[in-house]
Specification:
The structure is a single chain. By secondary structure, the chain is an alpha+beta fold. The protein folds into 2 domains: 282 residues, FAD/NAD(P)-binding domain; 153 residues, Elongation Factor Tu (Ef-tu), domain 3, CATH 2.40.30. It contains 12 helices and 17 strands. The strands form 4 sheets. A 6-stranded mixed sheet has the order 6-2-1-7-17-16. Strands 10-11-12-13-9-14 form a 6-stranded antiparallel sheet.
């Protein structure tokens, strides 16, 4: 086997895999079909384009599993995290980015790397020239390549994913809205308050609004619970949104401090200029006309102008526990690896982490080396274990990183200081992340050069 590698897909996972393998001296050919062929969600030709939220979620590496994954990516010289840190926007304890600058930075680094050749073309068949392949085409894999993958994996699972609207900052009425992060952790969000009547009228409008129709072959496709359309959440109960993206907890309306909002819609900065804001948690399958009409009833958004309305697209992923080995190789065709969202991880950092490991594993294999696997006590190891064997193949669904994927503390006594009583609840997350940080550092020392 020569030291060449094909990577199909220039999203977060594919770009990260290419970066890691190229830095290890591998000659990488990266294929991205945009702009030759577009998708239902992308709008640019940049590599690593973010098509949904511009948030990488919590950046707290001490008490949050997502923040822990951020830290592990940074430890491994992640290109995606370099770009995210370089284009960070105000978002409280979250890591939100200017999506255009972020994607342009990734594209710049990939195209400038001497070991990476970028081809702008659709790949309709899996390359068979003897070099290994990483498929990182994500949830919007083209029909032709999907058919080629199906030859190896048989039936695939699918679900629907939705995109939230983006609006212009200067169209928000700040005489009604105010700046505040929950529990006064900064002033990084714009809040639109609703009283009880306004909230209930809004729920009624969501339920009655015109929705995107499914094609016949899509009717049995489920939604992913981590990215439900706003109107689907509303249909689960009138109070659902008040305990989800519209919860009023931790907020005080500066225009009426003695009146507690019944519900709140939050807006988060979406670009470095601060001219665009996205509606947090407001992914939707409402038709565009209904979106404009309904969302303008939100207090403070009566004159809102939308830079992008929400949308719905089909999302595909593999039943990875039954198909992939521990090094992300297809059991039936070990020269093929999968990475990113198509493996059944959900979220930007999770996709990036799997892409990073796929690129590393391929590079080690080409160099004749066998790496150790990251411990299941780490974010990397927990994600990898879930999609390559620990997850139940019969009920497998896309999964974000969370502490529930890691071994419980009570089974690993060397990390527990409170004997017999176990770890106190308030220290549990910190103890988990301390364990993970130590184990990750130890794992790095075992990796081949």
């Amino acid at each position: 086997m020569n030291k060449k590698l094909h990577i199909i897909g220039g999203g977060l996972a594919g770009s990260e895999a290419a970066w890691q393998a190229a830095n290890a001296g591998i000659a990488v050919t990266l294929y991205e079909m945009r702009p030759m062929r577009g998708t239902d969600a992308h709008i640019s030709e940049w590599l690593g384009e973010l098509v949904c939220s511009n948030s990488f979620r919590s950046d707290d590496a001490q008490t949050n599993a997502v923040g822990l994954c951020h830290a592990e990516l940074r430890d491994m010289d992640s290109l995606i995290m370099k770009a995210a840190d370089a284009h960070k926007l105000p978002a409280g304890t979250a890591l939100a980015v200017d999506r255009e600058g972020f994607a342009q930075t990734i594209t710049k680094h990939i195209t400038a790397h001497p070991n990476i050749t970028l081809h702008r073309q659709e790949v309709e068949a899996i390359p068979d020239d003897g070099a290994p392949v990483i498929i990182a085409t994500g949830p919007l894999t083209s029909p032709a390549l999907s058919a080629a993958i199906a030859v190896h994996v048989g039936d695939k699972l699918a679900f629907f994913d939705a995109i939230a609207p983006i609006l212009y900052h200067d169209s928000i009425d700040m005489d009604i809205c105010w700046w505040q992060s929950r529990y006064d952790k900064g002033k990084d969000y714009i809040n639109c308050p609703m009283d009880e009547t306004q909230y209930n009228d809004f729920i009624d409008a969501l339920l009655a609004g015109d929705k995107t129709d499914f094609k016949e072959w899509e009717e049995d496709t489920p939604y992913f619970n981590g990215c439900l359309p706003i109107e689907v959440m509303a249909a689960r109960g009138r109070e659902t949104l008040r305990h989800g993206p519209m919860k009023p907890r931790g907020l005080t309306n500066e225009h009426a401090p003695t009146i507690k909002p019944y519900g709140v819609v939050q807006l988060r900065q979406d670009n470095a200029l601060g001219t665009l804001f996205n509606m947090v948690g407001f992914q939707t399958k409402l038709k565009h006309g209904s979106q404009t009409q309904i969302f303008k009833t939100i207090p403070g958004l009566a004159d809102a102008r939308f830079a992008r309305l929400g949308g719905l697209h089909r999302n595909t992923f593999l039943n990875s526990p039954s198909l992939l080995d521990r090094f992300l190789r297809l059991k039936s065709a070990p020269h093929i690896r999968f990475a990113g969202q198509i493996t059944g991880v959900e979220g930007y950092v999770e996709s990036t982490a799997i892409g990073l490991m796929a690129g590393k594993f391929a590079a080690y294999e080409l160099a004749g080396q066998t790496p150790t696997l990251p411990p299941a006590t780490t974010a990397f190891g927990a994600l990898l274990a879930h999609i390559t064997g620990d997850g139940d193949a019969s009920t497998f669904q896309p999964m974000n990183i969370n502490f529930g994927l890691m071994p419980p503390l009570k089974t690993i006594t060397k990390y527990i200081t409170e004997k017999k009583r176990g770890v106190k609840k308030q220290n549990r997350k910190l103890t988990l992340t301390n364990r993970a940080r130590k184990d990750f550092a130890d794992w790095q020392t075992t990796l081949p050069l």
